[in-house]
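Much of our argument rests on the idea that a fold can be written as discrete symbols. Part of our work consisted of pairing the sequence of a single chain with a tokenised description of its backbone. No coordinates are needed to read the tokens, only the vocabulary itself. The record that follows shows the chain in one-letter code together with its fold in token form.
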Amino acid sequence: MIELRHAGPEEFAASLDTVIDIYTVAMRPPTDQLTGRQSIMRNHATYPRFTCLVAETTDGVAVGFGYGFHGSPGQWWHDVVRRSLEEREGPATAAAWFENAFEIAEIHVRPEYQGKGVGRRLVHGLCAGRGERTAVMSTHDQPTAARHLYQRLGFVDLIGMYVFPGGYEHYAIVGATLPLQPMP
């Protein structure tokens, strides 16, 4: 059985080694990116209304995590993506999605626990009770299990085949109106 528990910003920052380990086995990024990713995650914990959930086995072994925060001007992802959406769809569309958004920064589950509802529970748990109007995130723009999960939860494509500045991978920027649709 997997249980979800909240981790505050201080606990999250203190457990970054575990978080990075889960991120690494789930995403298999180039090792030279891990130090930068850890720094980004540490910084995210300082953002307004940061919330984190950790998925653990009954004996306390972390098998997944997810976190997000209130998106605000001055945050790199928020500014870059909002500007791109504004250029493509206009200021009204960008405002509708980003004026009062919960930005889901990371959702990762160890491969041996994927496909068992852990990711769905993390997304729902993070979004439950939020005061924001929308939830937004980026995900690889490929037909992955995660991408299908987000679609089933009500996330729609805002921008497809998006490459972040300085990057090379294609992402989909997706958004959903809160509260999320319940899973059948």
User: Anything to note?
Assistant: The mean pLDDT is 96. DSSP finds seven helices and seven strands in the chain. The chain has one domain: 2-177.
